[in-house]
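Re: beginner question about structure tokens

> Can someone show what the tokenized structure looks like for a real chain? I only ever see the sequence side.

Sure, here's an example I had lying around. Input first:
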Amino acid sequence: MKLAVFDFDSTLMEGETLEIIAREIGIDKEVREITGKAMRGEIDFFESLQYRVSLLKGMQSATVNKICENLPAMNGAEKTIKELKNRGYKVVCFSGGFKNATIPFKEKYGLDCEFSNILHEKDGILTGKVGGEMMFNNSKGEMLKRLQILTGVSKSDTIAIGDGANDLSMFEFAGTKIAFCAKPILEKHADIIIKEKDLTLILDKIL
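And the corresponding structure tokens:
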């Protein structure tokens, strides 16, 4: 067995989940600026996530779910997932975003597993709080290490694909590191750099 671990926002999915949600209440510009700083490694991911989620306080969870269930997949995502699975890979998503989005995507496109965060709600309304598995700069690396221990998959049989600074930690445990339309901070540490928004370009590089 082999592992292919994808970031979600701007990798498996076209765009940033938080920004798309924020657009609904007219604060997407502010959220976009903070997201950009976090992905470039200019500010701490945990602090940026907490602040951005706090801006969503008061939104109806049903509205958020509807938005998240209709997020656009990245060009080539479905084909790439299928081909990797055909070649013996378990295909996993690590996201600093939310299960509202990653679970529907997993079910639609056949991911083997997803790890992400949870938007806290009370009586159907977002409280502005967040918790979960992918809260910190090193969360993806720590989770990948655990998956490798549990599955017995080696570093050399692990591929990691991402676009931002919070994907750096999983690169440490991946034999093949792919920067997909990525920020310079991630490209510096990548084995493969993809500049076009087409995930199928990965297949020619690794298979």
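Each token stands for a local structural state, so reading them left to right follows the chain. Residues 139-151 form the longest helix (13 residues).
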